[in-house]
Structure formats: structure tokens, C-alpha cells
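tool_call: predict_structure(chain=1)
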Amino acid sequence: MVIKVEVFSSPGCGKCGHAKEVLRKLADELGGRQINWREVNILEELDYAVALGVLSTPSIVINDELVFSSLPSAKKLRNELVARLEQESE
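tool_result:
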């Protein structure tokens, strides 16, 4: 019952830093053990990013599915994570 979240970012991207901070806070709030997240440098893993459909940063992939191709609001991201956690627990 763990969801995998990946934040695709690029060096020097200000919005990417904000996305990582929001995700870090939400993961702690919702239960860090339930959300396994990592930062993906799009320049270092370009083939992987393209395979998932990531064309811009920041993008957020949940369980290998591109869910946000731009920075979502904290509320939208929280709602999506809560919904995914509820699906996993069923």
C-alpha cells in the first residue's frame, strides 16, 4: 500500500524546487511510509522521462502514470495523493 511518486525537474528550475517542497510536506502529512517519492533530473534520465510522456518540468508521475505535466496547486496534489492512497487501501 505504497504509492510511487516521481517529480521530474531540471537544474535551475524555480518551480521544481517548490514542487519538491510541497511534495515533501504532503508526504510527511499523509504518512511518509505510504508515499515513496524521488526527484528525477530530466537531463540525467531523459529517455525515461520521454517514455512516460514528460515534456516539461516540473512534472509529477504517480505509479508510472504522468498525472501533472505542470506544477499543480498543493490542494490538487494533496487530493490526488489522498485518492490514490484510498484506492491502494481497498
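agent: Helices lie at 14-30, 46-52, 74-89. Proceeding to next step.
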